[in-house]
Here is the input.
Amino acid sequence: MHRTLLVLALVSSATVVAQTHSLETLITAARENSPQLGELIRAGLPGLAGRDGAAVWGQEFLFAVRSEEPATVSIDHGPPLVMRRVAGSPFWYLLKTLRLGTTHHYEYFAGARSLGSYDVAGYNPDSYPRAGVARGVLSAQKTIQSRVYPGKAVDFWVYANAGVDLKNGAPLMVWQDGETIVGNADLLRLRLQIVSDNLVAKKLIPPMVHVLIAPAAGIRSVQYDTVSDRYGRHLLDEILPEVEKTYKIRKDAYSRAVAGASSGAICAMNVAWYYPGQFSRVLSHIGSYTGIQTVPDGGYVVSHRVRREARKNLRVWMSDGADDIENQAGSWPLNNIQLANSLKLKGYDFHFRFGESAHAIAQGALDLPESLVWLWRDWDAGKTEQVYEMEEAERAKPLFRVKIANREAW
Here is the structure.
């Protein structure tokens, strides 16, 4: 489906009134039908067209889309709601008050024609800037020429939380699809920078060096979905040595995590699986444990390897939703459940959050304050190792079972 969702604009900090966040400014402009609204929306954000057509501040959700025809929006599969045109522009918008602590699905229409759909998070409090919290520093974009992926340039950024220990070495967290976690893109999705700074200020996670890596142009699936040690070599031999020229990071797997969403999630799992001596913590959102790549094996083998091979010292947070993808490459919900059951059977320290969300980062964003705290719980700067054990609360629970909810048994 060709999507033409609007990319919402955020004004630069230079034009924002002191103490007022750019998202708040945008939504206030929509609430007041400000003459500036068209300008704010028209500015746009590059790279997000067709995905993020909603902005959230508190309980106010701003839905916006570009359309030459009158547009409507269906929220949580409800009847289409009439949208208001921004004067003098092709943009349509609707401001709604919605419940927090959950995800919301939306789909835009021009007449009966769908313009695209996605999910958005009703963010938790730690996903908003807090007064008095020291903010981390985002580096400029850095680029390397890869030898592991010959002829390919790879971009990455580094976000260092305030108070990070660069003398003795900082804990490390590596994020795939890093271009979605920088600048305004992060505000419409994970809000990693805000969340991590808030949690550091609360002393719930350690100050960290976050390495945000973008996939090489044209080979994202090759890099991320291939079940092998290749991407891990790329990370360890090419990316991290460049990072270490500026930031001192810890070498122990106990102090290293790797994270991603969709294909980035199976990539994260692969890195830890092949290099458990380098990474011991995994954050997996809407993981593509399916057959997108099949040489040498598809992602569906990951759950079977977990069942068959000796348990590795890994701590894994997974999340997925019942409305995730079902296509020729496989079933995202079923394969995530399969992996969760494999981790359960082998006694891993894992947590699986299975909600209703579609293939979107919304559920991961909603859970990010909780998932980061869970993943880094009990971390101690004086230690370099820990044997992870399944939590007693999880040990007492049964395996995940599948129930068909939309068909009769016979």
